[in-house]
Amino acid sequence: MKDLFEKSALIFGCGNILFGDDGFGPAVIHQLTQQHALPEDVLALDMGTSIRDTLLDLTLSEKKPGLLLIVDAVDFPDRSPGEIFEIPVTQIPEKKASDFSLHQFPTINLLAKLKDQAKIKIIVLVAQVDHIPDEVSPGLSKTVQEAVKPACERIVQILETALQ
Q1: Which of 9, 69, 113, 139 has its CA 20 to 30 A from that of 54?
Q2: Pairing mode, strands 84-87 and 9-14
Q3: Domain covering 2-162, topology
């Protein structure tokens, strides 16, 4: 994990692979690292459900990345399942506050601090879920699985623009 403090861009996939479409972030990181040649100065990590500790480490670190890209799943009523879009940190849904994911109270505060005080560019790339089960049920829905490849392509585009 020492690479975490040496890279100019970090990509964090968030989500719980045991709860259906909530595993979108880790699925994107897996495909991104297996099928794309990321620049040497980029680190992509499956954060699962433990992003908060890493964000705290980044907040306290003297050296910070210029770009932090977070990939996660959301449930917005006005979006179509599998739709990929960016949201500002301030629009991370409160209704996921009890999840084991990115959207817990301290995490939102840490992201805001990194963005505003450390001047890190933060992009939150999300996919609209089709379904998140109430009980353990691994595996993405077909529509969200089909969103993994375009999400990887979007990340590559973001990196090309950000690292110029």
Answers
A1: 139
A2: unpaired
A3: Rossmann fold (3.40.50)
* 62 CB-near residues (< 8 Å, 6+ apart): none
Assigned token pair, 151: 């999400």
Residue 17, token pair as written in the block: 């692979």
Which DSSP symbol is given to 128? E
Question: SS in 3 state form for 28-82?
Answer: HHHHHHHHCCCCCCEEEEEEECCHHHHHHHHHHCCCCCCEEEEEEEECCCCCCCC
Q: Which residue type does 9 have?
A: A
Cβ pair 52, 107 in contact under 8 A? yes
Q: What is the DSSP letter of 19?
A: B
pTM over 0.70: yes
Q: What is the mean pLDDT of each run of 10 residues along the chain (164 residues)?
A: 84 94 97 95 92 85 92 93 92 51 58 77 95 94 98 97 82
Which residue's entry shows tokens 């109270």?
A: 105
